[in-house]
Amino acid sequence: MTTLTMTGVSRVFGRGPAAVHAVDDVTLTFPRGGWTAVMGPSGSGKSTLLHCAAGLERVDTGRVLLGDTDITAAGDADLTALRRSRIGFVFQNFNLIGALSAEQNVALPLRLAGRRPSRRVVRATLDAVGLADRARHRPRELSGGQQQRVAIARAMVTRPEVLFADEPTGALDSTAARTVLDLMRAMADAGQSIVMVTHDPGAAARADAVVFLRDGRVVDRVAGADARQVADRLASWER
Amino acid sequence: MLRMSRAGLADRWTLFVGALLSVALGVALVQSSLLLLITAATFDPPPGLSAAERMEFSDGTTAAVSMLGVVLGGAVFLAGFIISSTFAFTVDQRRRDLALLRLVGGSRGQVRRLLLGEALLLGVAGAGLGVPAGLEVMKLQAWLMRRFEFVPDGFTGQWRMWILGVSLGTGLLLAISGVLVAARRAARVRPLEALRETGAAARVMTAGRWIAGLLFFGGALALVIVAPHGGPAGGQAMALNVAMPASVAVVAFAPLLVPLFARLMPFGGGVLGSLARANLRDARRRSASVAAPLIVLVALVVGNTGAGSSFTTSGIDEVARSTHADFVVEGRGPIADVPGVATVSTELSLPGEVTTGQGEDRETEAVSALVVDPAAYSAIHGTPVRLSGRAVAAGPGGDVPKSGTVRLRLPEGDLGDLPVVASVPATMSGGANLLLPPGLVPEAQLAGAQARSFVALKPGADPAAVRAALARSGPVSSLDDWLRADADARNSTNEKIMLIVLGLGGLYALLGVVNSAVIGAATRRREFAEARVTGLTRGQVVRVALLETFAVTGAALLLGVVAASAALIAALATTSAVTGAATLDLSWPLIAGVAAVALTVTGLTSLITSWSATRRPPVTLLAAQE
């Protein structure tokens, strides 16, 4: 069972001799209920790949399927609906809305979808990331790790089919990073599909599989590697 | 959505205080002007006035009403402009927040509704503050008008209950129409922009800007072209309306023009100068938004005072050129019999009411009529007039048809239908609307008329002796003295009008300037912090911000003058068409004053905002990202 399928996807920025093939004819499948890490050197097209997979970036060629839904040519309204119900995002910079409390941030996707979120559901989601006691705090009153866990709670409150994470531990210290990765591991073990872009071999090693990207192309895919093996593999591709 | 709007307002209060103030003062200014206008239009003369005084009173209120009409128009324009540009700027500065909203599932409609919701709250709150503020503004405006004698002593603005509804409506309308365009634009923000560190360098010149710019440029151009053909009154009115569309056109093109002009400013060398220059190049929309209210302020103040004083000077020159006399006597008497006097034109001024047209088109207007001796009038004022019997002529003040018949009612009697058989050219300096031949008005009715006699001497006459003899008929002044006094009076009137029309509006626009400078700096904390971790000291960051501010202010001043020059061109063309001599009279102290105030205000604002934005250590700012 796959939750996300990319077939022959390319994305080019610029034109003529200055054109950059950020994603170059990539075909990938992401299994349902699995955690896949995408690694590669800087500029290898990791983030663009993630944006294309999540429908944030238009693809030039190829197709992207979320479950059975072809999102390649989806319009703005369809993509918006998708973000509300079937896709969750977590980013390096947390991207919480500063004006809203942790609780309100978590409830936001549901409210945008026109649902009246029950306090119980919101609290339970915050509780799942270990922040039930921080519900009324504003983002600026939380540590980086806490903010990221609020962001994860916000992404998870809609029970999305896929959680996209772009360098989720990139701005965190190692302790906070470990907490976030433990949380994601537990989610994956509970059946959540996760696609994560990362620089950190330690983070990638927590995933079920690691996809290596170079110059916009998939160059390798390994499963069950530890941090050392991932780092060695990455180093070999960076040479 | 409304709760989010409220949360947004509460959190970004620095961005919104300015928007709220601009709505509140906009509502206050519109409300005050409207109430004063209504009061003036329905103002009844106090009991116990003579018929002549009543006619003069109604002529005075007509002038006050038209002046207040201009004030109201200006207030609506400024409020609309300042509010919409402030809103557009605040929305622009929150692109990342809005993109974030889209990222977590917000639809375009929801972004639009969020912004409209905010505008709704700001409109209501602004009207709530604006209504009481408007009462204070009205006291001030009424006091100015009384002090300058545009209205009689007892004049005070009158409260009308319905103004509550009007002001609330004004606040909502201004706020919501102000945010509509910005909201549409914001709804097109792509979710991906939330992930970029700085907002994507969005296209600076949108199609809307091009269209608005060209449209208003066309409007200003049309006014400049038509003004010289509008006669003295029409031409002046058009020239004084050029600065508004011209400034809007310049503002529309500001993202192109401001960086271009800012580059001309002296930045000084060194790393700080080049950093400031680079920042300006990078933040074109921000520079344009900061410059916008200043461009409008400068265009209105320089353009309209320049055009106004050019018209006044042109009128003064015209009177000096066309008056061929040696003495002016404020009175009448047996002047012609004084030895040494060649010509005397004794002119008796009476208020009156002229009715023109028939049936539906019937129109009655307050006028000033001048009883003259046609031959003497022609000789003294250098324009031929032939009148006799019941025939009258259209005077230099215009406003009366140049042919056909008019019905003239004087304070103490109806003169019936009179044929208009001649006209003198309408002049820039204005004057009587109707010239009447002697004998038409019964002598008894002339007793109360204001008399003025222009006296020309015979060659070789002894001026001192003649002057002494003339003094028996009334106060005498030499023509030069009289012209000087006349010029002083005209200039002073012009200045008073400009102060009433532009004074409060100018202050309001200045608030817009401060506003945009504050908003421009409010979202730069992170940028400042980045500069500091790169190695700049706090003082250097503040200096770079100040350099940028001065460059943008300088560019805005120049662009304001560019827009103002459209009004000045219209004034040149109109004075040339009306008097034959193109006249431009600029008040350099005023222009220098505007520049000094602008530089001081924006400089101080920049200092304060950048100093406070750099208060926290840069590392804590960079670590704590929202």
TrEMBL record, chain A:
It comes from Paractinoplanes ovalisporus. InterPro entries: AAA+_ATPase (IPR003593), ABC_transporter-like_ATP-bd (IPR003439), ABC_transporter-like_CS (IPR017871), ABC_transpr_LolD-like (IPR015854), MacB-like_ATP-bd (IPR017911), P-loop_NTPase (IPR027417). Pfam families: ABC_tran (PF00005). PROSITE patterns: ABC_TRANSPORTER_1 (PS00211), ABC_TRANSPORTER_2 (PS50893). SUPFAM superfamilies: P-loop containing nucleoside triphosphate hydrolases. Keywords: ATP-binding, Nucleotide-binding, Transport. Gene3D superfamilies: P-loop containing nucleotide triphosphate hydrolases. This is ABC transporter ATP-binding protein. The keyword Transport applies.
TrEMBL record, chain B:
It is found in: Cell membrane. It comes from the Bacteria. It is a multi-pass membrane protein. InterPro entries: ABC3_permease_C, Lipoprotein-release_system. It holds the Pfam family FtsX. Keywords: Cell membrane, Membrane, Transmembrane, Transmembrane helix. Its main location: membrane. Residues 70-189, 500-618 form the ABC3 transporter permease C-terminal domain. The chain crosses the membrane at residues 12-43, 63-90, 111-135, 161-183, 204-226, 246-266, 287-307, 497-523, 544-574, 586-608. Belongs to the ABC-4 integral membrane protein family. LolC/E subfamily. This is ABC transporter permease.
